[in-house]
Design brief:
This protein has about 425 residues and is α/β, with parallel strands linked by helices. Helix content is about 50%, strand content about 15%. It folds into 2 domains: about 270 residues, Alpha-Beta Complex (Spore Coat Polysaccharide Biosynthesis Protein SpsA, Chain A), CATH 3.90.550.10; about 120 residues, no CATH class.
């Protein structure tokens, strides 16, 4: 059901009580009872220490958590100089709706800067608030994304899709376009909150790639904040991941059509300034979870085997079959090189936007290839330090740019298969 605001009455009353604020920090939550207290304390400490002259508000925007997240957030003491709003958003269930509520509160309070912070981060310090909000409050930038290290075993959708595709399409070297810790100017918040997207996947996990893409393509001033390293609550990387993958990648692919007049002409990548001391910090180790990843790959292999040749070019489909190795009676592994991965992603992006089938199913059929590339990279990176891993990700991103002509050729010449149905 469409709602014209993400705010319930309690949040609207708090806006009237507070009046105005210069900085709003929003924390979207869903079942984060174990970590929300520490995030709140560090956030409030950062605001009090680094912005003592600015009126600040911390907003916990919750998605009907079934644990004690709301109760912990309400009970966590913070300095009197920092206001606190704990509210349940309304609208589609998802992170984007939670952020929409934060944006509406910031708009109502006429905030100069809005910081968004993930609720499950264990490495967050008060200095992160200064690093993110400082460039906005100084008036130098409109959108600040995080720049941090993560363990190679946590190789993520950002490394394999978000970063290389955003860089190649839109010509800005934003290392963490899906990062959950960002800062925005009040003007950018007002621009974004009025967009008619809150009944789409932007209201869910598509929110961060949407914000980054619009900030780039609509000409807002970008920077990155050096935050050191990021660690958060570990969980099996395949459990419940399919909806997130669908929402993030679907949004990314959909934006290619919206900005189709812009990205084909971009042939060079511009560096994005990094604010703060750039120090490579070795991330905390996490388990590789390779068995779980390959199990998920094999489930996808069975599910999408007949669909893949209708999406991939014959050459790429042949390469996939040639690199598929049987590892058991009913199990396989796929050796997918960075170049083949790039071509596969571009094939899927074209068919998503120009094919006649269900685009959501096209995105979901890409997920097993993502798992294979992720597993390949985790295995390769077993002996790497973070600098080596980061270098590999940069090389892969450059490959996306080098093969952009392949994407453009397929995009411009694609004819849908009239006979295939999804």
């Amino acid at each position: 059901m469409f709602v014209d605001t993400a705010l319930r009455g309690d949040a609207q009353r708090r806006i009237r009580e507070i009046g105005e604020a210069e900085i709003v920090v929003g924390i979207p939550t869903y079942k984060n009872a174990r970590t929300i207290g520490g995030i709140l304390e560090s956030t409030a400490e950062g605001l009090e220490r680094y912005f003592p002259e600015s009126r600040s508000v911390v907003v916990v925007s919750d998605g009907m958590s079934t644990d004690d997240t709301v109760q912990v957030a309400q009970a966590t003491p913070i300095p009197e100089s920092v206001e606190k709003i704990v509210t349940l958003y309304q609208g589609l269930s998802g992170k984007g709706s939670a952020i929409r509520a934060v944006f509406e509160i910031a708009e109502g309070l006429k905030a100069q800067a809005v910081v968004l912070m993930d609720a499950d981060v264990r490495s967050m310090t008060p200095a992160w608030i200064e690093a993110l909000a400082g460039p906005i409050m100084a008036g130098d930038y409109d959108f600040v994304t995080p720049y941090y290290s993560r363990h190679p075993n946590e190789v993520a959708i950002n490394d394999l899709l978000g970063y290389p595709l955003t860089r190649a399409l839109y010509g800005q070297d934003v290392r963490q376009p899906l990062g959950g810790e960002v800062a925005l100017s009040g003007d950018l918040v007002n621009f974004l909150v009025e967009k008619d997207v809150w009944e789409t996947d932007v209201a869910r996990f598509g929110i961060h790639i949407w914000m980054t893409t619009l900030a780039i393509t609509e000409g807002w001033r970008l920077a990155q904040a050096a935050l050191g390293t990021k660690t958060h609550d570990y969980k099996d990387p395949t459990v419940g991941f399919e909806p997130k993958f669908l929402q993030v990648v679907g949004t990314m692919f959909r934006l290619m059509t919206i900005y189709r007049r812009a990205w084909p002409a971009l042939t060079h990548v511009q560096p994005v300034p990094i604010c703060g001391d750039l120090e490579i910090v070795e991330p905390e180790p996490i388990p590789p979870a390779l068995d779980s990843i390959w199990d998920a790959f094999n489930r996808g292999l069975s599910r999408f085997w007949d669909l893949w040749p209708t999406i991939l070019t014959p050459e790429n489909w042949d390469a996939v079959r040639e690199n598929l190795r049987q590892t058991g009676e009913w199990s396989y592994q796929l050796d997918i090189s960075p170049e083949l991965w790039t071509r596969v992603v571009y094939d899927f992006a074209v068919v998503y936007n120009k094919g006649e089938g269900d685009p959501d199913k096209v995105v979901t059929a890409l997920l097993p290839f993502y798992y294979a590339r992720k597993a390949n990279l985790i295995k390769q990176a077993a002996e790497w330090d973070y600098a080596s891993f980061s270098h590999h990700i940069a090389q892969q991103a450059e490959l996306f740019m080098q093969l952009k002509s392949y994407l453009i050729d397929r995009w411009e010449s694609y004819l849908p298969w009239g006979q295939f149905e999804i």
